[in-house]
């Protein structure tokens, strides 16, 4: 800990917080020595690795940290930081004693196999670890299924395949059984790949491991195709999802442009956050209307969606609408709104807004307007989820995996990894599970989408009252990145 710094612990979150001069705050992650103070240390074998010996200053300083905000004013405090990832000169596991395991949970996402591959290869090639297990079928695989031995040879070309070679599932989290299995198998490094629900489970596993006083490092690699994990710049698989969504949008555009009054409706992922729909729309430039959960819209009346569709069809003769799966849920019937059905992960089962919107459009134009339209509805969800990661996501997944490996070998535990303003950091579990990242519709990126599509803002005049608000801070300071 640097000079002039003091450490405290938040009793509500068990998060270590280090305070420094000029308002510096480090939201730290746990370390094995917090509850096992007499652990021996070892020389990092990377210093003898010919691939890395040519890299100057390869080991990161133990006090290196990454700032959460980079847009500041001259009188701003230094603000919140996270501990930087990377190899440390001293490590807390001897290579021969490491017995690692990897588990994938939740839905599929491009890049899962790349993450698995690079954890295995990182452990083997950088640290000489030979004992690595894959947990078959998600959390329940710890106690209900066989494990899969993983070596660099076995995972050599899995990054070229979609899905996960380990299998996945939702739910199945039984903390005692999972930690019992970890203890019985002699596992001392656990790598957990999954979304916010999975990482909440990982946090509980870590707490139970700490309670039992086990020398086991728990590292999370956050996964969500929706890009709705807070703090980190973006989630792996997102770039691939946006790229693949272009194919569906292009197909809708071709179909719509080939028929009189052609209308293409493309439903994309995004339960509560419309990032894929927003970025796919902006990248495509063929979209006339983008509907996301964060921006309410209405169908009928002046300024509504139906009026806009009619206007665009009369102007251009065709139209493409992109809708995120969680958009417009407030407009669906009460029977849908009141359903309490959930999947095994606890996510509320949503009705299909793409089919609903398509039917409402057909009913409106065949009934009130007596206007013939040719509507095509495209849902590429599982095609997008099932493909392998693209070049960008493969590189990104490699960096995430190596960050997790370096952190675990250095004795850190109870953390997830991810880029914060372009630098990879270790982030406490609670920071990425406390809320979901959402599109800020007062941000410039959403304004760019509206300018690209020329769609109205769909703010209902009955519900919206324009207010003058004082500009006390810039949008970029308050979460906007672009």
TrEMBL record:
<keyword id="KW-0479">Metal-binding</keyword>
<feature type="active site" description="Proton acceptor">
    <location>
        <position position="226"/>
    </location>
</feature>
<feature type="binding site">
    <location>
        <position position="107"/>
    </location>
    <ligand>
        <name>ATP</name>
    </ligand>
</feature>
<dbReference type="GO" id="GO:0005829">
    <property type="term" value="C:cytosol"/>
</dbReference>
<keyword id="KW-0460">Magnesium</keyword>
<feature type="binding site">
    <location>
        <begin position="269"/>
        <end position="271"/>
    </location>
    <ligand>
        <name>substrate</name>
    </ligand>
</feature>
<dbReference type="GO" id="GO:0003872">
    <property type="term" value="F:6-phosphofructokinase activity"/>
</dbReference>
<dbReference type="InterPro" id="IPR000023">
    <property type="entry name" value="Phosphofructokinase_dom"/>
</dbReference>
<comment type="function">
    <text>Catalyzes the phosphorylation of D-fructose 6-phosphate to fructose 1,6-bisphosphate by ATP, the first committing step of glycolysis.</text>
</comment>
<protein>
    <recommendedName>
        <fullName>ATP-dependent 6-phosphofructokinase</fullName>
        <ecNumber>2.7.1.11</ecNumber>
    </recommendedName>
</protein>
<feature type="site" description="Important for substrate specificity; cannot use PPi as phosphoryl donor">
    <location>
        <position position="197"/>
    </location>
</feature>
<feature type="domain" description="Phosphofructokinase">
    <location>
        <begin position="101"/>
        <end position="406"/>
    </location>
</feature>
<dbReference type="InterPro" id="IPR012004">
    <property type="entry name" value="PyroP-dep_PFK_TP0108"/>
</dbReference>
<keyword id="KW-0067">ATP-binding</keyword>
<feature type="binding site">
    <location>
        <begin position="382"/>
        <end position="385"/>
    </location>
    <ligand>
        <name>substrate</name>
    </ligand>
</feature>
<keyword id="KW-0418">Kinase</keyword>
<dbReference type="GO" id="GO:0006002">
    <property type="term" value="P:fructose 6-phosphate metabolic process"/>
</dbReference>
<feature type="binding site">
    <location>
        <begin position="195"/>
        <end position="198"/>
    </location>
    <ligand>
        <name>ATP</name>
    </ligand>
</feature>
<comment type="subunit">
    <text>Homotetramer.</text>
</comment>
<dbReference type="GO" id="GO:0046872">
    <property type="term" value="F:metal ion binding"/>
</dbReference>
<comment type="similarity">
    <text>Belongs to the phosphofructokinase type A (PFKA) family. PPi-dependent PFK group II subfamily. Atypical ATP-dependent clade 'X' sub-subfamily.</text>
</comment>
<keyword id="KW-0963">Cytoplasm</keyword>
<dbReference type="InterPro" id="IPR035966">
    <property type="entry name" value="PKF_sf"/>
</dbReference>
<dbReference type="GO" id="GO:0005524">
    <property type="term" value="F:ATP binding"/>
</dbReference>
<feature type="binding site">
    <location>
        <begin position="170"/>
        <end position="171"/>
    </location>
    <ligand>
        <name>ATP</name>
    </ligand>
</feature>
<dbReference type="InterPro" id="IPR022953">
    <property type="entry name" value="ATP_PFK"/>
</dbReference>
<dbReference type="Pfam" id="PF00365">
    <property type="entry name" value="PFK"/>
</dbReference>
<keyword id="KW-0808">Transferase</keyword>
<feature type="binding site">
    <location>
        <position position="325"/>
    </location>
    <ligand>
        <name>substrate</name>
    </ligand>
</feature>
<keyword id="KW-0547">Nucleotide-binding</keyword>
<keyword id="KW-0021">Allosteric enzyme</keyword>
<keyword id="KW-0324">Glycolysis</keyword>
<feature type="binding site">
    <location>
        <position position="196"/>
    </location>
    <ligand>
        <name>Mg(2+)</name>
    </ligand>
</feature>
<comment type="pathway">
    <text>Carbohydrate degradation; glycolysis; D-glyceraldehyde 3-phosphate and glycerone phosphate from D-glucose: step 3/4.</text>
</comment>
<feature type="binding site">
    <location>
        <begin position="224"/>
        <end position="226"/>
    </location>
    <ligand>
        <name>substrate</name>
    </ligand>
</feature>
<dbReference type="InterPro" id="IPR050929">
    <property type="entry name" value="PFKA"/>
</dbReference>
């Amino acid at each position: 800990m640097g000079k002039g710094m003091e450490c405290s612990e938040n009793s509500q979150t068990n998060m270590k917080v280090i305070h420094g001069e000029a308002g510096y705050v480090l939201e730290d992650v746990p370390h094995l020595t917090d509850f096992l103070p007499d652990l021996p240390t070892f020389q990092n074998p990377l210093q003898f690795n010919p691939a890395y010996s040519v890299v100057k200053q390869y080991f990161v300083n133990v006090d290196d940290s990454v700032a959460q905000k980079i847009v500041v004013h001259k009188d701003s405090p230094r603000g919140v930081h996270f501990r930087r990832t990377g190899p440390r000169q001293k490590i807390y596991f001897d290579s021969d004693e490491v017995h690692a395991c990897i588990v994938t949970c939740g839905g599929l996402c491009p890049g899962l196999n790349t993450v698995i591959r690079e954890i295995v290869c990182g452990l083997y090639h950088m640290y000489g670890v030979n004992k690595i297990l894959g947990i078959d079928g998600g959390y329940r695989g710890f106690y209900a299924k066989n494990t899969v031995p993983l070596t660099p040879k076995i995972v050599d070309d899995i990054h070229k395949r979609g899905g996960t070679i380990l299998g996945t599932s939702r739910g199945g989290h039984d903390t005692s059984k999972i930690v019992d299995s970890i203890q019985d198998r002699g596992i001392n490094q656990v790598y957990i790949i999954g979304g916010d629900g999975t990482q909440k489970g990982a946090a509980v596993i870590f707490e139970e491991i700490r309670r039992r006083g086990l020398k086991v490092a728990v590292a999370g690699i956050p996964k969500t195709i929706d890009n709705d994990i807070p703090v980190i710049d973006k989630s792996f698989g997102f770039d691939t999802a946006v790229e693949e969504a272009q194919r569906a949008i292009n197909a809708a555009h071709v179909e719509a442009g080939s028929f009189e009054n052609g209308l293409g409706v493309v439903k994309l992922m995004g339960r509560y956050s419309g990032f894929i729909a927003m970025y796919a729309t902006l990248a495509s430039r063929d979209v006339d209307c983008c509907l996301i959960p964060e921006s309410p819209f209405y169908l009928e009346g002046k300024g509504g969606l139906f009026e806009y569709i009619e206007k665009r069809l009369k102007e251009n003769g065709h139209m493409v609408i992109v809708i995120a799966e969680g958009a417009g849920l407030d407009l669906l019937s009460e029977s849908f709104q009141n359903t309490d059905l959930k999947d095994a992960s606890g996510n509320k089962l949503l009705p299909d807004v793409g089919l609903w919107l398509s039917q409402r459009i057909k009913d409106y134009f065949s009934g009130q307007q007596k206007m013939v339209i040719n509507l095509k509805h495209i849902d590429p969800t599982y095609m997008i989820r099932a493909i392998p990661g693209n070049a960008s996501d493969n590189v990104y997944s490699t960096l995430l995996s190596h960050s997790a490996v370096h952190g675990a070998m250095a004795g850190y535990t109870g953390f997830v990894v991810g880029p914060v303003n372009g630098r990879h950091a270790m982030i406490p579990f609670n920071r990425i599970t406390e809320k979901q990242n959402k599109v800020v519709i007062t941000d410039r990126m959403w304004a760019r989408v509206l300018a690209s599509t020329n769609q109205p803002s769909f703010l209902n005049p009955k519900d919206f009252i324009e207010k003058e608000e004082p500009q006390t801070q810039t949008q970029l300071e308050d979460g906007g990145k672009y």
